[in-house]
Recover the amino acids of this structure.
């Protein structure tokens, strides 16, 4: 009879550990696939806004036209498309998501 009690206790701890591990993996997966891209997008937009403000201020200090911030936006957009930055970012985010998904598979490193 004590062996059954010990087995039940071990099963309860193993089940709790398994559920804790599974919950952690689900939360990590949601963070990587949902929250992280949103945070990264917000950070990139903030960096772009700061850089555009700085560029406009520097252009104004140099005596250039400051009434055309759309020109800077167009120039940065043209440069990004010429360098194919949207494709590069898409490949990097896809590779990162693939690596994160592969880390969820047990026994793979």
């Amino acid at each position: 009879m004590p062996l059954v009690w010990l087995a039940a206790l071990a099963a309860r701890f193993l089940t709790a550990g398994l559920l804790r591990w599974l919950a952690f993996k689900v939360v990590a997966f949601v963070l990587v696939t949902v929250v992280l891209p949103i945070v990264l997008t917000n950070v990139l937009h903030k960096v772009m806004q700061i850089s555009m403000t700085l560029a406009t201020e520097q252009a104004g200090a140099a005596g250039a036209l400051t009434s055309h911030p759309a020109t800077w936006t167009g120039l940065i957009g043209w440069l990004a498309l010429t360098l194919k930055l949207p494709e590069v970012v898409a490949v990097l985010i896809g590779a990162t998501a693939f690596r994160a998904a592969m880390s969820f598979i047990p026994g793979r490193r």
